[in-house]
Every structure is written in structure tokens, then in C-alpha cells.
Design goal:
CATH architecture of the largest domain in chain A: 3-Layer(aba) Sandwich
Structural class of chain A: alpha/beta
Oligomer: homodimer
Largest sheet of chain A: 7 strands, mixed
Radius of gyration of chain A: 21 Å
Order of helices and strands of chain A: HHEHHEHEHEEEHEHEHEEHHHEHEEEH
Number of domains of chain A: 2
Distance between the termini of chain A: 48 Å
Low-confidence stretches of chain A: none
CATH class of the largest domain in chain A: Alpha Beta
Number of strands of chain A: 14
CATH superfamily of the largest domain in chain A: Type I PLP-dependent aspartate aminotransferase-like (Major domain)
Helix content of chain A: 40-55%
Mean pLDDT of chain A: 95
Shape of chain A: globular
Number of helices of chain A: 14
Largest interface: A-B, 83 and 83 residues
């Protein structure tokens, strides 16, 4: 039996991160590659207690749930969104299997193969995979430290008539970039004017190193859900734990209705046990204090990594210090190919993600994404020391 | 902002079951509509204990998991499959969010919009929705109590060159039909000959009223995973509980590799907490004895429903008694439209699913699907009594 595969799945590149994780399996590799949160900070006891309360609720908790997701959790989430200036009702929100599923389903609902989507340059790898799986044409928009450059965005909108703009405006992946208020407002104005939906992907927005920082979401700037061009997604993976695989999408009621139809076909609903556990967690656990603690811890880890990098005297390595999130985006000298460097690094026992995979077109080959949240202390020190060794030998050969 | 929706999502009908559930919300309706398992039989205590053991394993249990699913659970599942004559390795298996997701992802991996899929007539509604969402052309094959009629299957294969055949050969939905061994072997031979993948959907196969009954899966008849045309999916939703949303797909290693790429884009992975809980459950809970208990209980419920129907003297209502599963498929006199009957029934406080939704084309309008697993005892009696009343008034008006 010879199987024939759909053209889009054949065109889909396996994730670089995934391939690296395979490369490192079973070895004593220190990984700065994955986007993994710090396990030490998972609120295990509180999640356990929350799950026990769900089980105390009886056997009905184990039955099929609503496609849209467990209503009490949606209600609580709407309250949390309101605190961040986002006005949304439970029927303008759908719970998903992580925010990754929200991205996939929104694309299936709103776009056709061949449609154009505009993205930051560079942007989140797994979203590029969704776009590829759906046969979209991805056009990267020139971007700097403040976000997409608006003149370019407008020019490309006129030229390509995109059917969606995809952005991670706060503590972006891979760059750690945070959009300025002007750029946020600028994109919102452009998309409102041209009638183009914005998919605002905000998995990291709450992971701030300085709790006082305020970066209004595009969704909050739009001021409403119905009729707004902003469709928003976020997740509990970074603030609680990834294993519970719960994210959400929110926005215009009609879009959410279509999303529910698509989700019904895709998997009926996401884990009802996880959703009920998160609902109980939100009722009994001080999640906001916990998120502040995560932000502080990650800020300290970033400082450690920056200090280690600074002490190494690497030639011409540059970065912009992020104000939140999980990633440091390093720029090496132009001649240095980070995919080749990765092979040398893995041989030394350390991994990162070469930057090329994050570009929709014309990749810059001298970039590297380092995660600073999964390791710390001596292990981070050892990892940077190994990377330094690899870099030394590698550049000696260049 | 005016949203434009993709043509396939616009064409997707909302599920009849879903609409009925909405209709019944907040009312004291006795529902024979949903495919809901009996809540009384959920092994709540064992699931609770299993979850506690996962939490005892420490914080790493809350981290991101593999796209393919938790390996120890796949290993145990392979052992369970072997007992049923299905030889499969962990890397020929992927855990999914229920078997519904397995169906959706396999379609995305193997088919292109416009491709033809052959289905039983009638067949599972939510699969028809997946096919619609993916823009497939669905051709129903004339089927009788033993399965698809092979001469017709062969004729349609030659005429339409389908890219997939979708079947539920054991205790089908909605019909409760179980394919004969001859038809199983016949379809396998045809599809091997023509090189057409078979998607064997087997959510109910273990729910047997007579534990001694043996109905070999198409997958077991094929004798191997790699190179076989049979791709198989099943779920824990009916044997353990739906809230844990864990199903699996298995088959040719190369197809599973493509499926993993698609799943990575679709949601990275399904709930790792649910998968680990099921892994612990399988280690400490006698699942096979539990499944026998479910089969016996459901068999008794079916008997009760058949007795109630038999005692009612409805004019010309016929059915074939299923040997397992969750559904009774009623044929009313030809002139009786069950969608109209449903409205009368809901007014009386009872619901079922009109059969028309299960037909890919040319629906038979006098069929009804009744679930007999969710209710029993006096409540089932009351439900059938209400349905009887509705039918009496309805036919008096005809």
C-alpha cells in the first residue's frame, strides 16, 4: 500500500525545535532550545487540590462537556480579561487545546488556501507551520524593536490584500520584542480601515519582569469584541502549567460561533477535566501573585544569562534585553551560520534554536533563540560555558 | 468589521445533536439524543487515585509532553491492542483529543479538497462534518445489516476513485450495525487491491453485551500496521470517561509520522495530564473487568428499552437489535418525518436524534436514533412514555 499525502502536509517542515529535541533525546544535553517554563514554579499542590475538588463534585464531572468549553471557567476568564481592559462575554470566548489550537482553528475558519497572511519578521515558528498546513501565502513585514514598520505594513496591505495579520505584540517569540503603543494603535487603525482581521497571539503578556509595566493589548485598544477586527488568543501554559493544555480564543461573537462549529468537527471539545481543574484553581489559588512570582524569577534568570553572556567576550554578539517572556534573541556576526553552530554545540552538550526557522522568507542565518526560563544557576552557567566552548572552536575553524 | 468566512466552514451544518442539546438546555428533558455513556459507571475513585499518583510523580508531570503522546500509555495500549489481535508498535500510534481528532487529522494528512470518500449509508454524523470541513465529496455506499454491499462498493470505487473509505464496522453509529466477517474481509481485499486507505473508526467495539462475542477488526485482519491500508482509531471516552478526551490513531509508520506533523501544528499535543492519568489507571485498575460490567449494564438497558418499545404497540416501528454499542436505530412508517416528530417530542419533554442528519445524501426521513445508555429504570420508562404520547398525538394529526 502506497499512501499519497496531501500537498500541504508534504510541504510542512518538521519543527526545528522538535528535531533538536529528538537530537538531544537520551543525552545529557542542557537545552536552551524549547519554550519550556520552569518546572520548579509549577503550582503542583494547588493543581492537585483543585483536581481533588473536581472529583468531589461527582461523576458528572467526567461526562462530555460543551464544545465552547466549561462555562464557569469562561466566566472567570472574562473577569480576568476585564482587569486587563478587555471587555468580553463568555459567548465571545472558546476554550482550546492550548493557544496553538486557537490559531489553527481561526485560520481554518477565516482563510482559504492561497490567501495571504502578514506576519512580523521573524515570527513564531509553530504559527508558520499552521499557515503552511492551510496552504496560505505568508508575507513577512519588515519589523524593528518596536514592532512592524507601519509604512511597510500599509504598502503590503495595498499590494497583497491580506486576509489576516498575525502578531505577537508583547514579549514576542523569538525576538522578545514588545510593540510600542504607537505601533499597536497604528496596526489597529490600518486593519480597521482595510477590514483585515488581526490575530493577536498573547501567550507571554502576563510574564512581565517588572510588574508595573503595562502594555495594552490590541484587543483592549479596540475597546470591544463584537465588530472589532482583533481576535485574541492566550493560554494557561505559561502561567499555570502546559500539561493542562488549556488556551482560549476570544473576539467577535459570529467568529466564535464559526470557531465552535470547526472545533466540534476537530475534536468535539478539549479536556473537560483540565478545564474544571483550572476553574477550581482560579477559585482557590492566588494566581496573580503566582504570576508575579514567575515574572520575577524569569527576570532573574534573564539577568543571569545576560551576565554570563557578557562575561564571555564573544565577538560582536548583540541582543535587545526583553522586558518579559521566555526568549533571548542573539545576533551573531553576519558570517556565522547558527545551524552549523548548533551541531558543534550539541556535540558539547548544549542546544538552542537557530534563528532561520522563524523567518517566513529570506532567513537571517546568524540569529539564535535562547530560552532562559527552563534552566538556572549552575546548570545555566554550565550550558553557556559549553556554548562558549563550541563557539570558540567553531569560529577558530571559520 | 465584516468577517469573511472560509467556504468550507460556511457549508458546515451545525450538528443536529448539538442543536437539540441547545433546544433542551435548562429544561427537564429526558434525552435519548446524545451519545452519552452512563455516568453511574464512571470509575471516579480509580481515576482520582490515578491522578493522585501522577501528582506524586512530581512537577515534571506538568511540563509539555510529546506530540505523539505519553510513551508509557502508548506502550500499554499496544499491549491491549495485541490481545485483540492487532500488532502495533508505539511509533505506529498517536494519542489524540478523542478519536474525533484522529479522524480530522487523518483527513487533513491524506486528502485534498474535492477528493472522494466512501461511507456507509447512514454513517457517523461528526465524521460527515469533518469531511465537509475539509471540502471532500462524500459518496454513500448502499449498506444492509451486514455492512456495505460489496458489489456496490467495488462499482463506486471504479467510478469515483475514492481516496478513503470510512467505516464503523462494529456497533456502528447510528445503526448499531455489526459487519459480517465476509464483508470485513471483502472491504479489506477491495481496498488493498485498489490501494485505498480505510479509516476504521472503532469507538464502540469493546462495548459488547455478550463478552464472548468476537468481531475481528479490519486492522487485525490486515495482520500488520506498516504497509496495511487500514488506519484505525478508538477512544477511552466510552470505556473510561469522555472528560479525559483521549483517543488514539494507529497504522502505517509513515502515515503516523505525517499525522504527528499535522498534530504539532494543530495543538502541539493533547492533555498530558489526562494521558498520564490514564496510564496510571491502566496500571492499577482492572479495566477489562470494568468494560465487561459496562457491556452487561448497557445490554440490560437495551433490553429495557426494547421491552418498553414493544409494550407500546406503536404502528410499524422496526429495528434490528444491536449486539453492542450505545444506539438503537428505529424505522418508523415511511410517511412519518422524525424531524417533525422531534418537535412534538421536545414539547413533551423527551429528545432523540432524527435520522436524516446521518445520511451523506438523500436522507431517509423516517428514522430515529435513540441512545439507551445514558438513562435507565424509571427515567427511561418516563422518556419512552413521553415519546409514545408525542407519537400518538403526532400520528393522529397526520
Amino acid at each position: 500500500m502506497e499512501f499519497r499525502f496531501s500537498s500541504h502536509i508534504q510541504g510542512l517542515q518538521s519543527s526545528a525545535v522538535r528535531d533538536i529535541l529528538k537530537l538531544t533525546q537520551g543525552k545529557q544535553i542542557i537545552s536552551f532550545a524549547g519554550g519550556l517554563p520552569a518546572e520548579e514554579l509549577f503550582p503542583l499542590q494547588a493543581i492537585r487540590d483543585a483536581a481533588l475538588r473536581v472529583f468531589e463534585g461527582g461523576k458528572a464531572s467526567l461526562q462530555y462537556g460543551l464544545t465552547e468549553g466549561f462555562l464557569p471557567l469562561r466566566e472567570q476568564l472574562c473577569g480576568r480579561m476585564a482587569v486587563k481592559g478587555m471587555q468580553v462575554e463568555p459567548d465571545q470566548m472558546i476554550l482550546t487545546t492550548g493557544s496553538q489550537q486557537a490559531i489553527d482553528l481561526l485560520v481554518r475558519v477565516l482563510l482559504e488556501p492561497g490567501d495571504v497572511v502578514l506576519v512580523e519578521n521573524p515570527t513564531y515558528l509553530a504559527s508558520l507551520q499552521v499557515f503552511s498546513l492551510s496552504g496560505l501565502r505568508v508575507i513577512p513585514v519588515a519589523s524593528d524593536k518596536d514592532g512592524m514598520i507601519m509604512a511597510e505594513t500599509e504598502r503590503l496591505m495595498r499590494e497583497y490584500k491580506p486576509k489576516m495579520v498575525y502578531v505577537v505584540p508583547t514579549f514576542g517569540n523569538p525576538t522578545g520584542r514588545t510593540w510600542s503603543l504607537e505601533r499597536r494603535q497604528g496596526l489597529l487603525d490600518l486593519c480597521s480601515h482595510f477590514g483585515v482581521p488581526i490575530l493577536e497571539d498573547d501567550p507571554y503578556g502576563e510574564i512581565k519582569f517588572n510588574a508595573a509595566d503595562q502594555f495594552p493589548t490590541l484587543f483592549s485598544l479596540a475597546g470591544k469584541a463584537d465588530g472589532s477586527c482583533v481576535l485574541y488568543t492566550s493560554t494557561f501554559s505559561k502561567t499555570v502549567a502546559p500539561a493542562l493544555r488549556t488556551g482560549w480564543a476570544m473576539g467577535d461573537r459570529r467568529v466564535m460561533g464559526m470557531l465552535a462549529k470547526a472545533k466540534q468537527a476537530a475534536d468535539l471539545h478539549s479536556s473537560a477535566l483540565d478545564q474544571q481543574t483550572l476553574d477550581q484553581l482560579l477559585r482557590h489559588f492566588p494566581l496573580d501573585a503566582h504570576i508575579r512570582k514567575i515574572g520575577e524569577a524569569y527576570g532573574a534568570r534573564l539577568k543571569q544569562m545576560e551576565a554570563l553572556l557578557g562575561s564571555r567576550n564573544w565577538p560582536d554578539v548583540q541582543w535587545i534585553s526583553p522586558r518579559g517572556g521566555m526568549f533571548l534573541w542573539l545576533e551573531f556576526p553576519e558570517a556565522l551560520d547558527t545551524e552549523a553552530l548548533l551541531r558543534a554545540a550539541v556535540a558539547k552538550g548544549v542546544a538552542f534554536v537557530p534563528g532561520a526557522a522563524f523567518y517566513a522568507a529570506a532567513p537571517q542565518r546568524n540569529m539564535a533563540r535562547l530560552n532562559f526560563t527552563y534552566t538556572d544557576g549552575e546548570r545555566m552557567e554550565l550550558g553557556i560555558s559549553r556554548l562558549s566552548e563550541a563557539l570558540g572552536e567553531f569560529t577558530a575553524r571559520m
